[in-house]
Design a protein that fits this description.
The chain has 13 helices and 36 strands. With 664 residues, it is an alpha+beta fold. The termini are far apart.
Amino acid sequence: MLRRILTSLFVGTFILFAFEIQKNKNLSYQASDGIWQNQELRLIDPMQTDPEIVCDIIAVSTKSYSNKFQIRVDFPTSTAVTKCQVGFIFHLPWLQSSKSTEPGSMIINTDQNYLVANFPAYFKHFYFQVYAMNLNNTVDSTEKISHFQTPPSPIRIQVWVEDFNFGNTPIQALRRWDGAHTGPNGQRHGLVQLLNGMQHYKIPIVFQDFATISNLQALHQLNGGMLFQSLQKQNLLWINFTNKNGNDYSRLKSSVTQQLFSESNIKLTPIYNFSNVPISDDPFSQDGMSSSLLNKLFNQYFLDKQNGTFIIRVPFSATILADDSYSTKLFSYLINHPWLEVVSPDEQDNLDLRIIQESSKLTPVSDSHLTELQDRISNNQGPFTLQALKMMESAFDDSSDLFILMNQQYLNQIGYFLEANLWAEELQPVSTCTRDIDQDRVNECILANESNFLIIELDGGRIPFAATHQNGNYFALIGTSSQIAYGLGPPSEWNTTSGIFMDPQEIPGAISDSQDLFSNYSAKQLSESSLQLTSADGNTTKIITISDQGIQITVKSAVPSALTIPVIFSPECMTHPGWPYLFQMYQNVSQSYIRLQCEHNVIRLQANQPVHSISFLEAYLGQQPGENPNISYPLMFYQKTGLTQFIIQAHPVLEIYIITNQYK
């Protein structure tokens, strides 16, 4: 008959109990040395409600070396690790019980919520039990455990980050990805922080709703997508995208989005679609996983009999996974717990997917006017459809009355792109002032030939859109700032009664008079390629002539005035390492010469007056300072607009030549 011996030792909060029962027998599993082996995963006790001390064992693991044997005990919180007493009961032969009184060292990891106890190497041959105690009262205990028993499978999870789509212009995406405090490359709460964590810790993550045209534009302004491409090559980043089976506009937008991401060498993967169940908090906490998430994970794990892959949906704007104060700890948590395994979609092998937590989505602005515009875009496709889609995306944002009003004023400019698509089909000469292109109940003028296309608004005598055709390529040449993003000026300055000019800092197009934006002009056709605009007071005339080589503008003004010449180019040009050298300007007191090159497209602007000022270009050559969180900034703060504004004095005569093709 065996005798029972009890020996107690205290090391901090650690207690060793040694009992003599029997040695392990008939266990065939061969555990690998130096690797944590899961031995027991446990349901979390719903009665453990004390937020300060939750002495609840959630997992036990073992590791064997040639000279020691380790037991690891995991808890839900760091508080439990430091304040709960942990006890071990070993079942030893009588002759070895005297050798079991020295437990060796113990390591407490409060960052990862576990402790590790070291024992002599031969302890791996014996059954043991673990106790957790609060104020000397046993709160939780395990059944007998063996290092050589077949280990249970870990809890497999996929991490899906979503709610990237609340910034629907590139600048809004940049600012909101980063928490709008430290600029697009800042480290306070940023996309860059999240991507770097995935790269460093090799954690695969699914981006649920990232695949939008505006997000891709913003990504190009960060680093050209190189980090995305690197992560995807390592199977660490998955961008979920499923073709829409809705109306023609939805299918068109999906097709264009896929094409653009493909051209950027970023892979989109259709994974799964789920209905959303809104949550109010981040599933991650400063302790790792929130208590509610741990409860759901472990409970579902046992309900599913240790099978299945669980989806954890994380709201990007709220998660501390992208906060540099906590991200290192949280990424470490995901890889340093043997009972937890983060898997990528290709590793699930048709296992059942269960949603553990999901985040809410923002509701886009939607009305009959937007639906009508979407139908027009779908039914009139061409080389400028992408610009129309980009502008359409900017309408899906905060549903405030002010923003809805801006949509109503600005979105009708989509008609410019659709009219340019019609021109691109035939490339025929056009000279007319009989079409209401932007549905504002006022006719606009069109001048076009095989090489150039212009729309002229008579309110302000301005050119809100111009395009050119070079070597089989089509690209915009002149545009307004609102065609790229809303809000040059802060919302406090907007005047809702001023229509298209409601933002006083809006760039309304070329040759607009900054001192008299609202002046109405009359139009007179001088030839099939030339129009004359005359202001209502007769003080200003503007003659616009197109040719195969470009555009000639002559302005005669009885009073001094400053005219704006905004030139559009692709924002992606600034990812070119030689970008500062692709812009050249020479001028003296009597003339100016400007050359802009974007890829193979070269634009030259010549004027008989010096350029008064240039806007936006400095944003490309250096990073602006960080934001002050207590200041309301305009929506286009930090925006790399793809728009350069030249202001030239027009008195008494200004001659401007915009050369689009010098070889014709």
